[in-house]
Amino acid sequence: MNIIGISGSPTRDGNNEKMIEMALAVAEDRGFEVDRIFLSERTVSPCTACDGCKNKKECTIEDDMAEIYPLLEDADGIIVASPVYFGCMTAQLKALLDRTRVLRRQGFLLSGKVGGAIAVGGSRNGGQEKTVQAIHDWMHIQGMIVVGDNNHFGGIVQVPAESDEVGMQTVRGTIDKICDVLGMIKQ
Ligand SMILES: Cc1cc2nc3c(=O)[nH]c(=O)nc-3n(C[C@H](O)[C@H](O)[C@H](O)COP(=O)(O)O)c2cc1C
């Protein structure tokens, strides 16, 4: 089984990429295949509401989403991390999530995948829970099976992430829960 990690940060090797790498290492240890999409190294433009996905069932924008769509379709589990920007996810991540409308139009291709979320903020109460909830909203609208960290809502982290022991535990809890649920439903 395959788990994909998405970082919505524009910062190469930043806190969000580190949290995704940590989560994917846990999943690998548990026998899952893993892959990653780092938006620091991809170009994804915002949806223009051209309705190509509605009328022709295809996205008309030519950019890195062409490589990202098959990665999402092939995944059994998806863990998404975002920096908190003004209390919500980054514009880069929102662009990617909006562009998956075509997968919904093609027959809910993300439905049944298991998803969890991580939010990293500069402040302790900087909007991490709201950001996690916004990512969960996308997962629900795609028909995914949404999990938390087996305690609360998911990965809630303050920078510097690698010093936030409690935050890292919520990231480990989230990826463990994704792996546990995949083990239950894919037997
Ligand atoms: C435009 C902008 C807005 C931000 N807004 C918030 C915020 O509302 N709450 C917060 O806790 N941190 C905020 N931050 C800090 C980022 O969340 C933090 O630097 C980021 O999670 C670091 O992750 P990265 O190293 O992966 O980029 C903001 C940073 C930027 C650049």
List descriptors.
187 residues; alpha/beta; Rossmann fold; six-stranded parallel beta sheet
Tell me about this structure:
With 187 residues, this protein is α/β, with parallel strands linked by helices. The chain has a single domain, classed as Rossmann fold. It has seven helices and six strands, in the order βαβααβααβαββα. It has helices spanning 15-29, 52-55, 65-74, 91-99, 101-105, 128-141, 165-185; strands at residues 2-7, 33-38, 77-83, 114-121, 145-146, 155-158. Strands 1, 2, 3, 4, 5 and 6 form a six-stranded parallel beta sheet that branches. Helix 1 (15-29) links the parallel strand 1 (2-7) and strand 2 (33-38). The longest helix has 21 residues, at 165-185. The mean pLDDT is 98. The structure holds flavin mononucleotide. Flavin mononucleotide binds at residues 9, 11, 14-16, 83-87, 120-123, 126-127, 159.
**SS strand fraction:** 15-25%
Q: Quick check: average pLDDT?
A: 98
For this structure, what is the CATH class? Answer: Alpha Beta
Largest sheet: 6 strands, parallel
Number of strands: 6
Radius of gyration: 15 Å
CATH architecture: 3-Layer(aba) Sandwich
State the gist of this model.
The chain has seven helices and six strands; from the N terminus they run E-H-E-H-H-E-H-H-E-H-E-E-H. With 187 residues, it is of the alpha/beta class. It has one domain: Flavodoxin domain (Rossmann fold), CATH 3.40.50.360.
